[in-house]
Structure formats: C-alpha cells, structure tokens
Amino acid sequence: MSGAWAKTGRAVLTPEGGIAVPYTNGTGAPSVKGSVVRITGPASVGLAAQGVPDCIGVVYEDGIAAGAQVLVVVSGVADVLFVAGTTAGHLARTFVAADGNFEAGKAVSEAFPAPPFDTDKHFCEIGHVVTTIGAAGLAKVNLHFN
User: Among 7, 16, 45, 119, which one has the highest count of C-beta atoms within 10 angstroms of its own C-beta?
Assistant: First the structure.
C-alpha cells in the first residue's frame, strides 16, 4: 500500500488483517512503520509518550512526510515496532513512568505484570504479541487498546 490509499479518507483492510484509517502525520518527521501513536491534534497523530496511556494505533507506512496523510492501524493485526525482542503470548504495551528503556513510539513485550504496576501497565496495553523476535524491531501484534 502507498500513501495514496490514505488520501481516500476511508478505512482500509490491510493484508495482515488490520483496519487502518488515515490521519495526518504529526510526528514532525517521515513516518516509521510500526510506530505507536496517539492523537496530538485534529485528525493528527504523534508518537506515544512515556507514562501516558492514550495510544490509538500503529503507523502502517514508512516514509510518509510530516504533515501528510498516513495510514494508522487501529484494530486487528499490525506490525509493531519494539524497543527489544518479543515473545509470542506476551502483552504489548507502551512505557510507564518507571521504565528506563523508553523510546518514543516504540512498544515493550512483557509477560503479564504483577502488582504494584499491573494497573498502570494494563492501561498502557496495546495488544498481544503474536510473533517472537530476538532483538528490537517489528513483531506482529493483535491490537486492542485499554
């Protein structure tokens, strides 16, 4: 798929099984596939922030200019950019304030957390990891946002 799909203003079913919708790339840089994003303005998305559980989707396309329309997967299966390796069956989440390895727009693969951070991490959950990878990079996630 190319950026031309985003210009239709319609939802797109991706080959991976995700539902993607167009938003304005408000990251300030060309899009990076798999980046976790949140609403930062009217129909605009920016990268996920640490300790803020407000993610709405995952960037579908690489290289879409800042200010242009980019497809964002909001449901279903998507490739998500992780800060480190993943394990199938783990939850995928953004970063809580206590995490030391934060990178904007990236996710963490983690076994189900235990107290006292389980509630905070639950609200940062973006889905469940479907594929295992050995190092930082893209892994498939069945998305859902808490």
Answer: 45
CA 2 → CA 28, 54, 64, distances in Å?
19, 27, 9
Can you tell me whether residue 130 is helix, strand or coil? Answer: coil
Tokens 């990079």 sit on residue:
137
Q: Are 16 and 79 in contact (CB under 8 A)?
A: yes
For the chain, 146 residues long, give each residue's pLDDT as a single digit of tens: 454 454 566 889 999 999 999 999 999 999 999 999 999 999 999 999 898 888 999 999 999 999 999 999 999 999 999 999 999 999 999 998 888 899 999 999 999 877 766 677 888 899 999 999 999 999 999 999 87
Structure token digits, residue 56? 């709405």
Question: Two tokens at 39?
Answer: 């609403």
